[in-house]
Amino acid sequence: MKLTTTAFAAALLIATAGSASAVSLVPVASSSGTGTFMGATGIIHDGVIPAESSVYNGANTVSWFGTSVILTVDFGQLYTLSDVTLSVDNNDFYRVQISEDGTNWNTLFTVLSFDGEIGSGMDTMSSVLGDPEYIESIDFPTVSARYARIYAIAGDSAYSVGEMQFNGIPAVPEPSEYALMGLGLLGIGLRLRKVGQRSK
Ligand SMILES: [Ca+2]
Ligand SMILES: [Ca+2]
Ligand SMILES: [Ca+2]
């Protein structure tokens, strides 16, 4: 067996795929909120999603009046975010922003009052293609972030968030870790080459 460049590349791909983290729910290290609101901020990342059409100020929600409230979650480190599951009051506009440093924020998407299929109460929305709750307008390209925040920008002045869960993976390793990974892969390649020579 001759280990061709293609075979070596394939081996590298397999080794890399095997070591990559699977996309999963991004854990929240801490959360906070500005302004006056009802409910603890932990409610928006406790994994409990209010039932579709349930009352906007129920026990599984953080609710408020006016637009002075900002709810922020801190993932504790950089993640590559790929998808989101949201539960918000159906008849309002909400903005979701992300940040790497907690100071500079970029808008990830805006939830429109006519997004979702719910006409009254809480509405669950997902950016996961194929999910029954999929909403195209909240689908976003993968992005690096440590923080995410949500706030209301318009609506009937009675606002609510029941959940803001992200899917993702810890952000890419530092360059020095890449170098170590490269050495490891080189070792795998050399071993494969030896096996190939023995089988001749
Ligand atoms: Ca919740
Ligand atoms: Ca829904
Ligand atoms: Ca509302």
Keywords:
alpha+beta; 2 helices; 38% strand; binds calcium ion; elongated
SSE string, helices as H and strands as E: HEEEEEEEEEH
- The whole-angstrom Rg is 22 Å
Q: What is the CATH C-level name?
A: Mainly Beta
Please report the distance between the alpha carbons of the first and last residues: 6 Å
Strand content: 35-45%
State the CATH topology. Jelly Rolls
- Name the bound molecules: calcium ion
- How many H/I helical runs? 2
Task: Write a brief structural summary.
The chain is α+β, with helices and mostly antiparallel strands.
Write a structural description:
Helix 1 (5-19) crosses helix 2 (175-198). Strands 1, 2, 3, 4, 5, 6, 7, 8 and 9 form a nine-stranded antiparallel sheet that branches. Helices cover 20% and strands 38% of the residues. A hairpin with a 5-residue loop joins strand 5 (93-99) and strand 6. It has one domain (25-171): Jelly Rolls, CATH 2.60.120. It has helices at residues 5-19, 175-198; strands spanning 24-25, 30-34, 62-65, 70-89, 93-99, 105-111, 122-126, 143-154, 158-170. The radius of gyration is 22 Å and the shape is elongated. The model is unreliable at 8-19 (pLDDT under 50). The chain is α+β, with helices and mostly antiparallel strands and 200 residues long. Bound molecules: calcium ion (CA) (3 copies). The site of one calcium ion has 8 residues, from strand 9.
